[in-house]
Amino acid sequence: MEEEWEPPVPAGYNDANRAFIQAFMARGTLTFPEGQKLVAAILSATEDETVDPQSITQDTFASFVRTAREAVEPLDYDIRSSRDQLRNGERIWAFINAHSDPATQMATTRSPEEVAYIKRLMDLLFDEFNTVRMEVMAVDEGQALKASRPSKRRESQHVNGEDEEGQPSTAASDRGLKHSEVLSLLSSLVAEGWLEKSRAGFYSLSPRALIEMWSWLVATYNDDSASARDWQRIKFCELCKEIVTYGQRCSERDCTIRLHDICEDRYWRTRRGEKKCPKCETEWAGNHFVGERAITSRQAYQRGRGGRANGNGNGSARRSDLEGAVAAQQEVADDDDEDMAEA
């Protein structure tokens, strides 16, 4: 009888390393302060003496992470890190499935209707509300609810039970979710660390989701045949080369240069303070945004917020009209293109 295969373990792998992996898997993500507490608790238990979390250095934490990576790699898992775009660039480590797409992973814990909704939500974030004119990559609650059921256009594309490539599709049988089910699912995705909800009420992908979905997002929404000069839906910071869903953009509409807010100061220092786009040499104004600020920084939004504070229903409507704002910006872009063609 053949012996059962067991994955190889790194040299020196012990119960402390095993406990670290188990705790990391349960949490999904770790910051360094969280890692200090976790490693201190593990060492306190294994060494039978109290270990102060503040005594856990970056090198000690990195050693646990490195050993964990080596141990889980044969099982198609990995540990990767990224900086949080919103919280002062705090580094976050995520325990991820390295070889399956998000739909496959979520299919084990979500119903087919929920998985289909999540796909529609991704399309809203990185397709519909991510245009050359307005790179929002976030949705408000109203738009999230509107996606509760497949669009008529999508249903007609899958009327024969096949997708655009002729493969069997679940869209034909997707009856969608009730609004209460959408709100419950969104709340769950926030609690699990897949989505973040801002104070302004916009949902966007969390650092954990961006780390785990990096390859899938690029493969799904970017054109691999496009040139380096072409606009793409998934964009990267000019300094750190990580995905930008919240940051700044060049004021030249067709320019592809983006910067995280957390990378801006360091980037301009490398250029000796010269604030010109490195690609098109346009002056960098610092007030053209990627993320929800592409909406919330607009005067119409600010007026709407004031109206809402004063009990004005029209103000509330303006605030929530994400779809209208993106469509209006696209109309401006189309008019500009027509003017250029005529000239």
From TrEMBL:
Protein name as it appears in the record: Non-structural maintenance of chromosomes element 1 homolog
Residues in Non-structural maintenance of chromosomes element 1 RING C4HC3-type domain copies: 237-280
Superkingdom of source: Eukaryota
Pfam hit, one: zf-RING-like
Role this protein plays: Acts in a DNA repair pathway for removal of UV-induced DNA damage that is distinct from classical nucleotide excision repair and in repair of ionizing radiation damage. Functions in homologous recombination repair of DNA double strand breaks and in recovery of stalled replication forks.
InterPro entries named in the record: Nse1, Nse1_RING_C4HC3-type, WH-like_DNA-bd_sf, Znf_RING/FYVE/PHD
Keyword NADP: no
Enzyme class: transferase
Keyword Cell cycle attributed: no
